[in-house]
Amino acid sequence: MTSKLSDLCFYADGRVSVADLDLDTYISTENMIPNKDGITRSAGLPTVNQTQAYQADDVLVSNIRPYFRKIWFADREGGCSNDVLVLRAKDTCNPGFLYYLLSDNNFFDYATATSKGTKMPRGDKGAIMLYAVPDVPLDTQIGIADTLSALDARIAENRKINHHLAA
Question: What pTM was computed for the model?
């Protein structure tokens, strides 16, 4: 059985003052790394007074050129540009499971196929919420997310070791 992404999450719509942000808490499409590789420190803050807010456990997805597969599972609160979608899990969905569900290449292929525009295509927010997702019980979601996050932690540890050896 499947349902729609909108059954698992919603677009967060909070705002935050840019004065409350720094280069580590502001996320834009520029400091999101392609191919699901997280984020880097921002090069600068926007010149507006307020921007879109996110909180820990939100899933941030770049909405410009979705074929770059830019996604980040927030580990802090902060703010982001309007070109970043902030997806927040509902009570019936484990946030980690939502992140791994959206990290699947099938999601990005769908977002690309339903995007609007040619030079700088943007994901269709309405179509994204219609993305078909599996119906998985919450306890199974937690188990899947825990297993995958343990694997991600081990991969990150191995990358640090490899980087140290190469230096």
Answer: 0.94
